[in-house]
Give the backbone structure.
Amino acid sequence: MADGLLPDVSFGEDAERASAAYDLAIPVEKSLVVDWDGAEKLWKHAIGLSGFRSSRIIVTTGVLAPKATRERLVRTCAAMGFADVHCGVAPVLALFGAGYTTGCVVDCGLESSRVVPVYDGYALPHAIVVDPSLGGLSVDAHAARILETAGLAFRNNEAALRAGEVLKIRAATVGIPEAGTTVELPLKCLAASSRHRQVVEIGVDERAAMGETLFVPQVANRSIESPGLAGVVLAAVTKCSIDLRRAMYEGIFLVGGGSLIPGLPERLDVDLNHLAAANVDVQVTALENRKFAAFLGASVVADLPDFASNWISREDAEDDVALAARLDQTSYNC
Ligand SMILES: Nc1ncnc2c1ncn2[C@@H]1O[C@H](COP(=O)(O)OP(=O)(O)OP(=O)(O)O)[C@@H](O)[C@H]1O
């Protein structure tokens, strides 16, 4: 709730600066919209900031989002004034951006990692595996524990996770870093206070332990049941029919911000080559711009003439029956 001088609703850093005056709302949790009113305000704000109101928009949902969520998202975009909307699947768009229509997309996100086998432009829903133990937040939590072990104290869990994320982005590796370097981080950047020190030192074992949590999550917590990143890829590929498995192993595409930890693509390649049949040559592709892969893919396909049939017009979006039918035609196809 805002006082008289502040706007009723505020976003991002503006809201943080005046955090005492507002109730915090997080409209999307675990890739699902939990507060539509808040989400609509956020989207209108973001689209307004982008400085243009294009006549078409591509939106994406979580890979296994219910149809009702996709319907509401399309209807919301139409109500915002867009003439045509496409509701896509981010990993499929990412694959298209790399120039392929078949492959196995490994998307390392904030709250989970998901493996999405795609054949001929269609995600194979029965083979999708989502693992919440392998999201960036899990690595942040482990990094925060490393900082606490080093003697830092945080105001609350959120502050600890934020500091953990900073440490992860600056220092995490998969495997012992070749240079064998200890990293010194200014305490200021970790937003933690200490009367005695200005920097915190993170050794090579701690650096490698952060990345290791994605491959052996039990490093962070022995009760986690996840088989790790290579294990979930194996699980997803195994759910594909036998004749598709080779194409999946030979076309692994790593995307998402969580995959940027140095050494991660190489380790996934090694682990998968151990797990796959001896006569399969696993190929892991990790493009430099993979954090933005879905956006880049969407911007490529949006202009393709072949994509025209995937747009849902505002008229169809406003008619419940037509919208449901159009989403069925385009749900896993981009
Ligand atoms: N350079 C980096 N090194 C390691 N991790 C990074 C780096 N940059 C971003 N990340 C992590 O990437 C994650 C976010 O990735 P991405 O933007 O692909 O997620 P998302 O698809 O929005 O997530 P979700 O769908 O799970 O909400 C965060 O955990 C963030 O800390």
About this structure: The radius of gyration is 22 Å. The chain has three domains: 12-90+293-330, 95-134+226-292, 136-219.
